[in-house]
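Hi Y.,

Following your request, here is the sequence exactly as I used it, all 187 residues.
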Amino acid sequence: ITTKCGGSPNGHVWTRDNMFRGLHESLERLKTDRIDVMQFHGATVRDCERHGSVAALQEMREQGLVKWIGASTNLPELPTFIEWGVFDVFQLPYSALDRTHEDWITKAAESGAGILIRGGVALGEPNIGKGSEAQWRKFEEAGLDELREAGESRTAFALRFVLNHPSAHCNLVGTTSPDHHRENIEA
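Below is the corresponding structure, written out as tokens. Let me know if you'd prefer a different format.
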């Protein structure tokens, strides 16, 4: 069971109290007494230093409420978070359409952290998912259609692309469409 903390009705708040509030809400909603992976989503290095966000995650783990701690993050924060050496998991953006974090995924994995990939299908193709025409135009411009296997959809190619990164441990795939969900499972 994986969840995130730090959110509030007024946006992200990285204080200990708000993070623990989110933890206890998740425990109640999920009807469990422990979360396997607790991540903060989008906190900056400055947020963490100002509010003691990492210490709050570590406290959750020390109390036995959380097994592993992680950060759903991106550049420019990622190098510092890797350097701190405290995270068990990093959730990072990566896809065939956005390879910005490609080398950093490897560096994060080499630190001993598990790597969860988000955005691997770039929100899905227009009219199938929520991806933008401009974003998927990059697919055509890069000639990625030529790399698809016979009968393979663009979405299936995008999933295969992410799964072939040697340091990607899990590809997080969400959808709002049952048909798209089935396609993701088949791929």
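The radius of gyration is 18 Å.

Thanks again,
Q.
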